Amino acid sequence: MKPKTRNHKPRQFAPLGVSNGILQLQMFQRRGSVVSLIATALALLCCPGASPAESIRVGYGSLSTNYAAIWVAGEARLFQKNGIDAEVLYLESALVRTALITGDIAMGGMSGTTMAAPRLQGADPIIIASFLNSLQYRLVVRPEIKTVAQLKGKRVGVAGFGLGAHRGAQIMLSKLGLNPDTDVVMLQIGGDPTRMVALLNGTIDATVFNPPLHNRAVEAGMRILANIEDMGFAVQASALVTTERFIKKNHDLTRRAVRSIVESIHFVKTNPELTKKSVRKYMRFKDDRDAEEAYQIIRDILPRKPYPTAEGIKAVLDELSPKLPAAKTAQPRDFMDTRFIEELDRSGFIDRLYR
Is residue 267 part of a domain? Predict the structure, then answer.
């Protein structure tokens, strides 16, 4: 049974099934509409001649350092600087993908695997910026599991089937010589906090975590069985995703959103204090050591020019092809729209940020 969670900032909506997920989306849609209406009215009253910023919702599906550029773009008011009133929402696991496809959010931070599967099935999500072109997962196990062989028949917890943590677990298990479909029992547990609790109390025997969260598991007595970074597996990991229909209707808004992310990456690399403050808020850290450790990771992994790569997406498609035949003939370039980054790059905007 999943532990109950209390409401904290950032706002979180945990996936409680399709009907509950739809209800949650409807709830935050109504609440967001009211907030936006009030904000717009106040802006017009205070500044009658000013044009109100365009409002969007930007979701992210994991409490991971990979999404720091989204958090900082909000906290440092970079979205606002570019004429965007962005509400940043934590929509756990598959809910961020559902919300994007249904149009309840304009953009979402998610893995290449999470966005690729629905596109192969007819939806129109598309990557407009990449936060990470490789995976960082650690396979974390209970202390009694000392070898790969001892993992056979054990319970491996993931956020949701077909999502980033699931694919990360499958890749690592395969590289270790296990069949992820038959040698272990995969269980959909939920996001990082839920999986951590499940691992510590023995509900599951193994799971995957991104750094620095894996260190907290080790401090609690768990073991690292494998590190995907040692396996040399390049793949499109975390990315900023929107839909083709949103771009078509909101081309300039999309351009300004990508500019905000590019500026945020620069801000992360050059303003540690506000970045660490954002990390503490969104990753719910209480210890300054955790925030410092996370910041060092974020600063090093975020690319100055956040291009997705065809090679990384091809790796995603190769992994999906056994269960989604359309992946065998899909073209990686069809899963990304890099014109907004290219525009900023060609103009010299990105290079000037770092001078």
Answer: yes
Task: State the Cα–Cα distance between residues 22 and 98, nearest whole angstrom.
Answer: 9
- 1 falls within a domain: no
Q: How many domains does the chain have?
A: 2
Among 178, 210, 231, give the residue marking a domain's end. Answer: 231
Q: Look up tokens 């090093």; give the residue.
A: 300
How many angstroms separate the CA atoms of 326 and 263, rounded?
Answer: 36
Residue 234 DSSP label: B
pLDDT tens per residue, range 137-184: 999 999 999 999 999 999 999 988 878 788 889 989 999 999 999 999
Residues 16 and 115 in one domain: yes
* Structural domain boundaries, residue 162: 138-231
d(CA 112, CA 119): 11
**Taking the C-alpha atoms of 267, 269, 270 and 275 in order, what is their torsion angle to the nearest 10 degrees?**
60
User: Is pLDDT at 50 greater than 50 in this prediction?
Assistant: no
Predicted structure pTM score: 0.74
Cα 151 to Cα 179: distance, rounded to the nearest angstrom:
11
